[in-house]
Amino acid sequence: MTMAKSRAPDLAAQLLAAPFGRETPAVQTASDPLVDTPMRVTLEQVRPYQLNPRRVPNPQYEAIKASIRQRGLDQPPSITRRPGEEHFIIRNGGNTRLAILNELWTETADERFHTLLCLFRPWTARGEILALTGHLAENELRGSLSYIERSQAVEQARQLYEQESGQPLNQRELAERLTADGYPVDQPAISRMGDTVAYLLPAIPYALHAGLGRPQVSKLLLLRKAAQRTWQQHAPGAEAEFTPIFEQSLARCDGEMAAFSVDRARDELIGDLAQRLELGYDELALDLGQTELRRGMLSQLLEPEVPLPRPAPGKLPAADAFTAPPTQAAAPNIDELRQRIAELAQAISTACAPTIEVLAQNEGLGFACRCADQSALPAQGQALLGLWQALADPTSGSAANIGALLCGTPTQAPWLDDETLARLFRLIKLARQLPHSGEC
Question: CA 88 to CA 127: how far, in whole Å?
Fold first, then answer.
């Protein structure tokens, strides 16, 4: 009897040793089905997919939640499990449904939200990349991902493919692999998505995550290429300085406007480059191919803008491994604004009434004006002087002939031609920023 007792610890140790040891997570997952199998799981057993392409809540979140509350879950998500892990994960779309089920279970304690019948799909050697492309394809069918979310997911896929192959992939190879794995995309789209993540996301994260689409993105990328070529022509050897200027110009639009305007971004960039390169605004605009300045820029300045919904404060998606944390651009420098306004006022006066002298100053709008012999000014000069006085001193009440200056009369054309009027509107746009740039 004593011998039996003394051998009991030894026997227990042998039973707990391999292959009789208690199950570890690795052994647990080894028992997962090897073929697609329906499986009943609870919410505690399932986790969202960590590389889910969606970075902001689904716009239809509340509608989906209301439907699930009333009808239950009509389409349970597919699940899988990585080797060695305890929890299942969503395999190819369904993270929003999982989040809603967790909310409803917490709110109602209704068992129909707690236990779900899912299709388990076995993990394979290519499980990680298949899960990511599966999420991409599923969301593409629903049309529910923003352009920046798709772009970031494609960049994630590139990294996974390169880990899989052990070598870098060019854009054509990446497009071929994504297409083979169920997410068809061509090389030009890959290039545009990569440039969006690299060049636009650091500058305008709010606009992109609010839903800025491919047409606007394409225009911004074309603008960047044209501006970069111009910079290289006029500032050889200073290539590193271009990117900060480009990002600062765009970020100024991202941080101040609920409605993102490509035209305003172009306007800000041209103004910044003109100042740094010491070139005239019109010269640089033409250098960038902006011939619309001379044949219809006014219509673009007045083009209606579609407001984009902005994330609530603090809701900007966290930066990932592909971008530095986005930062809010500093407000425009008030001295720079005043300098630009004064330059535009001088150009307008030179074109319309050369005897009106425009003097730059470091207060108000940034300029004052004077005329040695005001009585000798023609009617359009009188109107322009009145406009300058009205802008520089809103209490002056000077408004004579301003209608004829801007719009003309039934018997005569406007005194300001389209090019000069475009300058005037740019001046006014800059002046409207002054109250938000610091103390005047």
Answer: 13
Give whichever of 50-59, 253-262, 300-309, 406-415 has the largest mean pLDDT.
50-59
Give the three-state DSSP class for 359.
strand
Return all residues near 401 (Cβ < 8 A) that are at least 6 apart.
379, 380, 382, 383, 386
Burial environment of residue 318 by CB neighbours within 10 A (0 to 12, 13 to 18, 19 or more): exposed
Written as one letter, the residue type at 310 is: R
Which tokens sit at 298?
């006014």
Degrees, nearest 5: CA angle 247-248-251: 80
Look up residue 413 and give its DSSP letter: -
Check: CB of residue 360 under 8 Å from CB of residue 369.
no
CATH 3.90.1530.10 is the classification of domain 27-145: yes
The DSSP line for 81-101 is --TT-SSEEE-SS-HHHHHHH
For the entire predicted model, the pTM comes to 0.58
- With beta carbons less than 8 A apart as the criterion, state whether 337 and 430 touch: yes
Closest alpha carbon to 227 in 293, 279, 282, 284: 284
